[in-house]
Amino acid sequence: MQPKGLPRFCRLHLKRDFKEIIRGGIKLQYRNLSLWYRRQELPTSAPVRFAVVVSSKLGPAVLRNRAKRLLREAFRLNRQYILAGTDIIINPKGCDALSDVHAAQEALKSLLGQAELLNDSSN
Question: Which fold has domain 11-115?
């Protein structure tokens, strides 16, 4: 059985990566979600890397963890449609757009579409 989790190489870990993306990347907003992204300049086959940053202002730990789980799953289901070499950080400001996985997928796809980070085969 093939594991269905998000592989380690698809996650952002280093503090300096977070700082570089937030400072030098591009920010977009959709409903109560913020997206920062940065593309590597040279065409590369580097993986798409992803992180979710949630503030304690969102609510109790149960809500924060659910938001992270839903966004990670939405990313996992759609990562093959995202352009290679992209680093993405998502920050939910409210749970309105995250009622279930389908809503999280729609919100993520909308943000990625605004940023023009989707491949042509994602339609």
Answer: Ribosomal Protein S5; domain 2 (3.30.230)
